[in-house]
Design brief:
The chain has helices at about 5-20, 70, 90-105, 105-125, 155-170, 195-210; strands spanning about 25, 50, 65, 130-135, 140-150, 155, 175, 180-185. The chain is α+β, with helices and mostly antiparallel strands. It starts with a helix and ends with a helix.
Length: about 220
């Protein structure tokens, strides 16, 4: 559930006013996942520190912190460290990842594929009353499954049936949310339009099967 842009901008203004450090956790939302290189860019703000990991090294153990010069230069030599600090293989992987982002224009592709997924989900929502909400940014999207769109009563059992049906068809999905009724869609940024459409078709069939099983 993306934070509203106005909230992010107001929060940044408050931190600047009171001298509070603004730290953006981009471990999941960074590296093109939201349709921009980093999620905070949707709000047009600049954080003081950015935490990165996951997509940074294509699955190898590597994380990073980027920040303003005055902050990053503050610790004395030896003041920072980590278990995997300076892992040469992971660092080489991260450099290769950045090359792929540039040569394959993955940020722009993430926005395009995200729009494709969102359109498909919204079309599906018009036919499936159990889809109470479609939300997210870029290739980081979700559908909320409900028993009633008016009351928004969560339907965790339906979400699980959708996951089971999709898995049987070869599509792996994630379930999340406080009530376990939200299905997350996080397609690879390198996916083709045809692969995205195939996934949407499987999701459609899986939801149809899951809803029929209790009708």
């Amino acid at each position: 559930m993306p934070a509203p842009i106005a909230f992010m901008q107001r929060l940044r203004a408050l931190t600047e006013r009171f001298g509070i450090m603004f730290v953006a956790d981009e471990v999941q939302t960074g590296f093109g996942r939201t349709g921009k290189m980093f999620g905070y860019q949707h709000a047009g703000i600049e954080p003081d520190l950015i935490a990165m990991a996951k997509s940074l090294a294509a699955g190898l153990p590597l994380s990073a912190v980027v920040g303003r010069t005055a902050i990053m230069d503050a610790p004395l030599p030896g003041g920072l460290g980590g278990t995997y600090a300076g892992n040469p293989v992971a660092c080489a992987s991260a450099l290769a990842v950045l090359d792929v982002f540039e040569t394959e224009a993955l940020v722009a592709r993430a926005a395009e594929r995200g729009a494709q997924v969102r359109d498909g989900l919204r079309q599906l929502q018009t036919r499936v009353p159990a889809i109470g909400d479609v939300r997210g940014l870029g290739c980081m999207l979700a559908i909320e499954l409900v028993k009633d769109r008016t009351t928004k009563e969560a339907d965790a059992e339906l979400a699980q049936r959708v996951l089971d049906a999709a898995r049987a068809r070869g599509l792996l999905l994630l379930k999340c949310g406080a009530h376990k009724n939200v299905v997350r869609l996080l397609p690879p940024l390198t996916a083709t339009m045809e692969e995205i459409q195939s996934g949407l078709n499987i999701l459609d069939a899986s939801i149809q099967e899951a809803t029929r099983s209790v009708s």
